[in-house]
Every structure is written in structure tokens, then in C-alpha cells.
């Protein structure tokens, strides 16, 4: 290879690898975002962790246990569409799932309270956590976004 060919090859190689080397030295956008606001680094007083909400008992206004939070249903935009309660079950049997709005649940004295009775929730339509296929069979292989 001639000197001109070698010089051209080196110039092409530098042009191709130069931007990659620079990209590696820039901080990741996520890291900049996380360091920009200290509030993003901890749970705020007006926020709630989903892991703490799921499984929590729900009480009516007469302080009677009416069920527990089974799951949260999220929209594609990340908003809580519904809170699914497990109502009327004993040791995981005999109950049903009912969906309520997150706005209907109130937090007081470190408890979740709902202004509905257990009988009202038992009379409400059941919520299917698992989608059904065309034959009406439950399809437990539902994946996020489907």
C-alpha cells in the first residue's frame, strides 16, 4: 500500500471512530436527569410505592376490612387506570376481583379506606386480571403492552 493509501485509510478510520470515542465520554442522559433534581432520588410525601400498596388491606368507613389490593392497572402513559381489589376471599379462595379508582381510595392513619361496603363491592362486576382468548378461555400469558 502506498503512503497516500495508508494516510487515507488512517483518516477514514479516525473519522469513523472519533464520534464513537466522544460519545463514550459524555454522561448518559439518565444520569444527568437524576442528578439535576434531588427530589427525584427519594419517594416524596405525596407519592406511594406500588410495592407497598399491593397486598395492603382496604377498610370501609366503619373500619371493617373489605379486601386487599391485588394489583394496579396502568395505562401506556404510566397513569393508574384502576386499583384491583381482592374482595371476599378467604385464604385465596371464594372471592373475586373488583376494580376501583385510585382517587376513591383514601389514606388515613396509615390505612387505605374506601367509601364502599364489602356487600357493595361483592355486588360490583368482577374484574378479569387475565385476558380471555376468542374461545372465552383465560390467557395467562399477557405481556406488558398487549
Can you walk me through this structure?
Helix content is 28%, strand content 23%. It is an alpha+beta fold and 146 residues long. A hairpin with an 8-residue loop joins strand 3 and strand 4. The N terminus and C terminus are likely disordered. The radius of gyration is 27 Å and the shape is globular. A 6-stranded mixed sheet has the order 4-3-2-1-6-5.
Topology:
Blueprint: H1 3-25, H2 29-36, H3 50-53, E1 57-59, E2 65-74, E3 80-87, E4 96-100, E5 105-108, E6 111-114, H4 118-123
Parallel strand pairs: 1-6
Antiparallel strand pairs: 1-2, 2-3, 3-4, 5-6
Main sheet: which strands, in order across?
4-3-2-1-6-5
Global morphology:
globular
Largest sheet: 6 strands, mixed
Mean pLDDT: 75
What is the compact description of this entry?
The chain has 146 residues and is α+β, with helices and mostly antiparallel strands. Helices cover 28% and strands 23% of the residues.
Please describe the structure with a list of short key phrases separated by commas or semicolons:
4 helices; 146 residues; 6 strands; alpha+beta
Amino acid at each position: 500500500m502506498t503512503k497516500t493509501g495508508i494516510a487515507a485509510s488512517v483518516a477514514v478510520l479516525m473519522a469513523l471512530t472519533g464520534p464513537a470515542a466522544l460519545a463514550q465520554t459524555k454522561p448518559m442522559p439518565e444520569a444527568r436527569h437524576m442528578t439535576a433534581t434531588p427530589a427525584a432520588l427519594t419517594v416524596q410525601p405525596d407519592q406511594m410505592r406500588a410495592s407497598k400498596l399491593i397486598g395492603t388491606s382496604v377498610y370501609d368507613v366503619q373500619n371493617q376490612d373489605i379486601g386487599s389490593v391485588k394489583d394496579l392497572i396502568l395505562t401506556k402513559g404510566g397513569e393508574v387506570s384502576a386499583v384491583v381489589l381482592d374482595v371476599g376471599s378467604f385464604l385465596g379462595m371464594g372471592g373475586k376481583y373488583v376494580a376501583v379508582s385510585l382517587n376513591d381510595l383514601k389514606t388515613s392513619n396509615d390505612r387505605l379506606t374506601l367509601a364502599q361496603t364489602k356487600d357493595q363491592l361483592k355486588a360490583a362486576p368482577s374484574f378479569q386480571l387475565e385476558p380471555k382468548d376468542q374461545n372465552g378461555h383465560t390467557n395467562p400469558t399477557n405481556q406488558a403492552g398487549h
